[in-house]
Fold:
Amino acid sequence: MSSRIESSLPVQLGRMERARVVRDGEPRLRDTHITLSHGSGGKSSHALIESLILPAFRNPLLDGVADAAVFHAGQGNGRIAMTTDSYVVSPLFFPGGDIGKLAVHGTINDLAVAGARPLALSVGLILEEGLDMEILRRVIASMAEAASSAGVPVVTGDTKVVHRGKADQLFVNTTGVGIVEDSVRLGVDTIQPGDAVLVSGYIGDHGMAVMLAREALELEANIESDSAPLHTLVAALLAAAPNTRTIKDPTRGGVATTLNEIASRARVAIAIEEESVPVRQAVRGACEILGLDPLHIANEGKLVAIVPRAESEAALAALRAHPLGRDAAVVGNVQVDPAGMVLLRTGVGGSRVLDMLVGDPLPRIC
Amino acid sequence: MSSRIESSLPVQLGRMERARVVRDGEPRLRDTHITLSHGSGGKSSHALIESLILPAFRNPLLDGVADAAVFHAGQGNGRIAMTTDSYVVSPLFFPGGDIGKLAVHGTINDLAVAGARPLALSVGLILEEGLDMEILRRVIASMAEAASSAGVPVVTGDTKVVHRGKADQLFVNTTGVGIVEDSVRLGVDTIQPGDAVLVSGYIGDHGMAVMLAREALELEANIESDSAPLHTLVAALLAAAPNTRTIKDPTRGGVATTLNEIASRARVAIAIEEESVPVRQAVRGACEILGLDPLHIANEGKLVAIVPRAESEAALAALRAHPLGRDAAVVGNVQVDPAGMVLLRTGVGGSRVLDMLVGDPLPRIC
Structure:
């Protein structure tokens, strides 16, 4: 790799790297066994990854908080983005999507928010002995349709089978590679006080749709997953607001966790106006019943963007002009203090600290 | 993608594509449910992939039998290789390796045999609730050591947790990207009658080591997995034998399945001299007791190469000069008839058809 990578364009560790944002000193991993909250995307996940996984893999090339790693391929080959996700969502089918569609969209989105043009996907399947072939057929058809619609080919794959009772029907890994044009310069280090915070539409739909699809929960509401590929929305945003600071897809842990990661990493405060955050009535209602905050619920077709104030109107207009951004809104701004924290200004004039997700109220949401 | 890709350098579908080699007409998938043999890498795997998975994803760019997909990144960006594997090996630790080392080596090897210089790896973990943190720590340390020793960085990752009883401790997906230099021209379509068939050393070690590590099997033998990264061995081979036709790593399904894939794809016959195939005495003995053929047992640190006769001596010398190829041998040659088949010439002067693996005598070997 060129020395340029090691200095101005470090290889970035994607998901894992998010672990670094643990705020209060060094992360601690007191647990002796894995719990569901280690997979939540919230505080426990961060502690696990930061204290056990990252130290093992860390090297001088690893830096950044991107959803995808971005690195040079060699002499003059441009930058390659790479991202990986395993999907263990339960149930496999839910209103608005299924594990296959979710996997394709999720991986495309991790590339997209890194500023990459998605190039190719791989698919790794782990199947449980006894799985109904029709279920597999439906999931594969859904993946193929999602990949084809998004214009991103599946180029390689792998299939493994484990004994009955050693997996839960079907797990999917999708990994994606993309190309980052030299003109793309996203990074939380460019964030400045005064920048605007945008979300591209209603939040919490995916997590709530999956939650309500579980038979154990006797709650009915008309909520569909927002699973969608965001690469064309990101392209529209970057064209309209070329100095966009950073873009994230608020999946596990929701918008609140994503904003906390950004605030911590950029050493700024982020202030959010609660009333300006788009939340569907059905999602808000279900959250109230379950004692959850929509800001902690996973999204699979939404983005959060930090944009210079001067470009925020253009950014908002560009998002709203796109079918996947019709309900976009400016929800807050970046401030100097209290650095590393996210504040939520409530309707009645008060404000409270908005933390990242703690525990895992919604396991296996993706 | 350029039209050049679609003609002379098609995107290749790696593992999945192997399904196409099913010989006797169109593959048939009569099963209504997944069985362990669908994960064997042998005939059932091929039928599943060819009849259910490939038709869904197939597009004009998909072709070839490489272990990695190879495609252009865009204008003048060279070719990118991509490969994915999920690892579900049981037990997690076995003589000579563990699931983490295996995953790193396996993915590096799929890139290497496609003629690619490995560039970066991703790691996707699926953890079972209740997993002992020390087990995870050991696996991660092993992956990091393997990646570091091979000089291929892990650049991104993902961690998911499922409920107790919904996975078997720990599954790993590793996906790799690499760069294929323009000078590399591997492809089964270049194979010609008279070419030599080489293997890089003793076969069957990995599969037997894992098999014997299972407590249920009361067989003891001193067999260690051959898990190793083959990229430098491939580089040495290509330097010595620049017209090498194709290189494969005979993992699931063993050397026999790999040779059948090559013979079918290249529409040639391959004749193997049984006595020239390097098999350790302990592996041969365990195979005899279990009724298995060493040629069907998985390897994780060996390669099969088809080389022009004129370069076979140089190829053999280059392999033997490398620590991972000390026991390399020429084991057979390519013939015109019977096209698509592999013949095994036995010591007593007879010969029999060597088929690909049927069923799965060794589930969860990788």
Remarks:
- Chain A has two domains: 2-57+184-353, 67-180.
